[in-house]
Write a structure and sequence with these properties.
With 402 residues, this protein is α/β, with parallel strands linked by helices. It has 14 helices and 10 strands. A 10-stranded mixed β-sheet has the order 7-6-5-4-3-2-1-8-9-10. Helix 7 crosses helix 8. The longest helix has 14 residues. It is globular. The structure holds S-adenosylmethionine and iron/sulfur cluster (SF4) (2 copies). One iron/sulfur cluster binds next to loops.
């Protein structure tokens, strides 16, 4: 894996590879020769989570957006949305996660999806469930949506509905899944893990498999938005370590892509465990797992809010620019926060010198939630990198041998 940058237009050289998933539903871009439109950029967005509206028909206890049923004022207009897609497609062809809130509450959702598809972007969607009917699944297909993600936060209706704070939420997701399955649309399951549902995780994974999901992405809580009130429900660092180790053990046993998300030090544990077995992690032996990186925020991932504010991800509520004032491409290239995200050696504390910083990076949003400094070390990691690692980093910064 490269230390810096990603040879553009070459998915294999990119730390996250083509088709690497993140906050929503994702999948693989089509194969075949790709025209280089990168303009020589070292860093390119591979995945953009786009909050099309913050309005939502659920009321989840952990919601980063603290979303409620709107309407919200000042959301991006259709014209602004089309312009944003044009700008993105002019320099990269990322996966666009149409998310919310409930993205399907927008009247122009199919027009936007169609436009993105026409531009060669891979359009995917993260709806809540209630609005996914046989008719709307047809519209998804017609507009080129390639995958949908659904959140399941409990193995039973009781746990899930308590988390999502709407009766019938679980049943609505089951119905939605039935509808997308009937239409042959691939879907993935996302689960946010807290002490509420940690014990149910094996059953939720089983459920995802039985339902026929192509992927299950467990998210680790980021205490932001309404989630800030759940700080005491976050699993502690030792439990976190055990859980990520359990994730590692599942990866070869399950018939779907099981990918811990926003749990950056999973990639440290993954490498440590393979090393214990004498195995070196390479793209040839481990595919996407070898090319994925823990935190991709600002490096190959970005978030755009319902009013056009750009962030490294939806969980780090720090504005990096505004697409109403300048094109996304300019913000992507020049934002101070985005630049900081790409300079791993400058991270504070252990994350700045850890041997695993290139594959992990620590969660910048969790650091921010605890210290108000997104450059600080990941508060939920128990790993203590060696002094030698620190020396190597310091020498490297001085231009020394490392
Ligand atoms: C793109 S969002 C999907 C949005 C969609 N409205 C939903 O909640 O299903 C992806 C995932 O982030 C999760 N999420 C939201 N707030 C979170 C938080 N504070 N910490 C961790 N995950 C969170 C959601 O539950 C969802 O599974
Ligand atoms: S110290 Fe930081 S970079 Fe190293 S494994 Fe832990 S979270 Fe990742
Ligand atoms: S800062 Fe944290 S929540 Fe945001 S992309 Fe990185 S790991 Fe995920």
């Amino acid at each position: 894996m490269q230390e810096k940058g990603h040879p553009t237009g070459h998915p294999k050289g990119h730390p996250h590879g083509g088709g690497h998933g993140h906050h929503g539903a994702e999948g693989k871009h089509g194969a075949g020769p790709v025209e280089d439109i990168s303009g020589g950029r070292k860093w390119l967005p591979k995945l953009i989570a786009w909050e099309l509206t913050r309005s939502c028909n659920l009321d989840c206890i952990h919601c980063r957006a603290a979303a409620r049923f709107g309407p919200y004022p000042n959301e991006l207009t259709t014209e602004e949305c089309l312009k944003f897609l044009d700008n993105v497609a002019s320099f990269s062809k990322p996966i666009i996660i149409m998310t919310g809130g409930e993205p399907m509450l927008r009247d122009d959702i199919w027009e936007l999806a169609k436009h993105g598809t026409k531009l060669g972007l891979r359009m995917v969607m993260a709806p809540c469930g209630f609005l996914v009917t046989e008719e709307t699944v047809q519209k998804m297909k017609e507009s080129g949506i390639q995958r949908v993600s659904f959140s399941i936060d409990g193995a039973t209706a009781e746990t899930h509905d308590n988390f999502r704070r709407v009766n019938g939420a679980f049943d609505s997701v089951m119905k939605a899944i039935e509808n997308v399955k009937k239409a042959g649309m691939p879907f993935q399951i996302n689960t946010t893990i807290t002490n509420h549902n940690l014990k149910e995780l094996p059953q939720i994974l089983d459920l995802a498999i039985k339902l026929g999901a192509v992927a299950h992405h467990p998210f680790l809580l980021v205490p932001t938005g309404r989630g800030a009130q759940l700080k005491d429900q976050a699993i502690d660092p030792a439990e976190y370590e055990k859980t990520l180790t359990w994730f590692y053990e599942q990866r070869e046993k399950v018939p779907l892509q099981f990918k811990p998300t926003c749990a950056p030090h999973y990639y440290r544990i993954f490498r440590q465990k393979e090393r214990e077995k004498g195995i070196t992690v390479t793209p040839e032996t481990h595919g996407l797992d070898a090319m994925s990186k823990g935190c991709m925020g600002g490096q190959s991932f970005a978030f755009v809010s319902n009013t056009g504010k750009v962030q490294i991800c939806g969980f780090l509520d720090v504005e990096c620019g505004d697409i109403r004032k300048e094109p996304f491409s300019v913000i992507w290239d020049t934002s101070k926060v985005f630049q900081e995200m790409r300079a791993w050696d400058e991270y504070n504390g252990r994350c700045g010198y850890c041997e695993f910083r290139k594959v992990c990076g620590g969660c910048r949003a969790r650091a921010f939630a605890y210290t108000k400094n997104y450059m600080d070390e990941e508060p939920f990691c128990t790993y203590q990198p060696g002094e030698a690692a620190k020396k190597a980093r310091d020498e490297k910064k001085k231009g020394g041998p490392a």
